[in-house]
Amino acid sequence: MSLRWQPELLxxxxxGGWALVHSQQQFLFDDNGVLFPRDWLxxxxxxxxxxxxxxxxxxxxxxxxxxxxxxxxxGARWQCLRQFMLQDGDxxxxxxxxxxxxxxxxxxxxxxCGSCGSPMQQRTGERxxxxxxxxxxxYPRLSPSMIVLVTRGDELLxxxxxxxxxxxxxxxxGFVEPGESLEQxxxxxxxxxxxxxxxxxxxxxxxxxxxxxxxxxxxxxxYDGGEIVPQPxxxxxxxxxSIHALPGLPARQSIAxxxxxxxxxxxxxxxxxALPR
Length: 277
Ligand SMILES: NC(=O)c1ccc[n+]([C@@H]2O[C@H](COP(=O)([O-])OP(=O)(O)OC[C@H]3O[C@@H](n4cnc5c(N)ncnc54)[C@H](O)[C@@H]3O)[C@@H](O)[C@H]2O)c1
Ligand SMILES: [Mg+2]
Ligand SMILES: [Zn+2]
Fold this sequence. Notes:
The chain is built from five helices and 16 strands. The strands form three sheets. Strands 1, 2, 3, 4, 5, 6 and 7 form a seven-stranded mixed beta sheet that branches. Strands 11, 12, 13, 14, 15 and 16 form a six-stranded mixed beta sheet that branches. It is of the alpha+beta class. It is globular, with a radius of gyration of 21 Å. Magnesium ion (MG) binds at residues 173-174, 193, 234. This is NAD-capped RNA hydrolase NudC.
């Protein structure tokens, strides 16, 4: 893995450095990019709700200014995290922004103790919020989610959610529920979303996914039985597609796309793709 982006717990009391400005899944940027001199940003007097030391980009310390809402800054604009992902450029930059968005949103949403309502404080020495009144600790939130490509020989079961861009179909995904194993989650989600049963579940790989705080655990599975019945509201359409006539597919940077490309490559005897990180 590349070394341009290295997360690390930096003390915000440290002087200088660069800073990202984040609010509601958007980042401030200008002609020089998303990193601004931190001391210059300080003088703008923005509505910062949390400042976090994130790590090193190209060896330079990077901090985060989390704002309550996106504010106007002369000469700069705001752009969604998803847009940065789709600009097929710098993977390290996107990994840094994905990390920053998750830490910033988490810090913003844990300013007050969920147990007693007191203001929380940032802990020194670990990435956690701490309630001085009742002792509660809160760590950055991660939601394990499974994602699975169901296949039947040369056919792939792909579905579309009403949220997708027109014509795009993808693999099935869903959040793990308390008490369930990943295997049970995959079987349940496939049953709920398309009504079919599966067998020969095989774990393929994982991907951190900052929309909004998922850890994607990717599988291949074989179709076992049942007719496709799309889940009302969640699934607009689901069908079998031949590997020779695929519809619009998810972004190259997603593990959804990797699961599809990997299977197609194996059927066609092609070189396997690399797991996006
Ligand atoms: N990287 C990829 O390739 C890829 C592809 C597809 C989906 N995903 C991600 O997988 C995750 C799950 O996919 P889905 O949207 O199909 O899930 P899903 O099928 O479980 O349905 C989403 C709904 O589940 C509910 N929900 C249950 N637990 C939740 C939790 N912990 N956080 C938020 N909502 C919760 C909400 O009502 C939400 O609207 C999402 O974060 C999505 O962005 C990633
Ligand atoms: Mg789903
Ligand atoms: Zn408390």
